Amino acid sequence: MPIQSVILLEKAYGPNKDAAIKAFKHIISRLLKDLNVKIVKLERAEKKWIKVILNGEDAEAAKNYLAEEFYTTILINQLKKGDIIKGKLVDVEEYGYGVYVDIGILDPRPKDALIPLYVLRKQLAKGHIVSTRQIIKKYAFMNNLPMEVKIRDVDERFETIESELSKNQVKKYEEWIKQGLDRIFVCGATRQMIRKAIIRSGHLRDILSIERLGLLEHAIVCKPSTTAQGLIAEIGKYLPKIPMKAFKAKEIKKWLKELDMLKGP
Predict the structure, then answer these.
(1) 75-173 and 183-247 have identical folds
(2) Where are the domains of the chain?
(3) Phi and psi for 179 in degrees, rounded to 5?
(4) Once rounded to an integer, what is the mean pLDDT over residues 10-34?
(5) Which CATH number does 4-72 carry?
(6) Which of 80, 130, 131, 135 is the most exposed place for a label (fewest CB within 10 A)?
(7) Which tens digits make up the pLDDT trace of 144-193?
């Protein structure tokens, strides 16, 4: 029977890359349990995306199902305006005219999608004149944070891709701000690792939940009386070399109000 392979838009990176591969194999095994297919191997492909190799009577059906569930790498000439794709933020620390999202374009060469600053201002800062740095800081953008985007324009000649946050992504941020709860974004650890670190730190009572954003990306939801910044230092002791950032909902809400006041009537 022919072997099928697919590169899915989940990454294995950092000190826990092997644990990520193991966790992802468990996830897809459950998804494919009713199909006549064997998971031959999971391995890291270009730009740390995960490649799944399948064999069996239903291998092609399994490949198509996984591609639909997790998205897959495509060619730039397959990309079209209006497409919705879930990728990962990259090179966040390199402030410029927006932020870049790795959406799995590997051929003919790797290419990321730009969310221009003017679009970020419109979607996350009510159109006010703010810098890329301010938006990155306020919204706790960090490398590998999952981001669902909508394609605005593709220029195959110059190999440029312009995008914006999808409606679902914007709505998620709006809901988080409305809730008024701090969140800690963690990129590079499995949910089990994060839960163990919270328990070992003695702060389980300060946490409402752990939201899964991606394979190695999660949001720790703090209780109303708990601030994210204070917990990062405590939990971080048990998650060495794992990046974490605080998403402060009340602070963002206050910032947006201040921007409205500065603009005036």
Answers:
(1) no
(2) 4-72, 75-173, 183-247
(3) -65, -30
(4) 95
(5) 3.30.70
(6) 80
(7) 999 999 999 998 777 899 999 999 999 999 999 999 999 999 999 999 99
Beta bridge partners of 247: 183
Range 203-211 contact pairs with CB under 8 angstroms and sequence separation of 24 or more: 203/231, 203/234, 203/235, 206/231, 208/181, 211/183
Question: What would the two tokens of residue 132 be?
Answer: 């890329």
For residue 90, what are its two tokens?
A: 């990259």
Amino acid present at 40 = V
> Under CATH, which number does the domain 75-173 receive?
2.40.50.140
Degrees, nearest 5: CA angle 89-90-94: 120
Q: How far is CA 226 from CA 109, 154, 219, 222, 235, in A?
A: 45, 43, 14, 6, 13
- Residue 110: its pLDDT value, please? 86
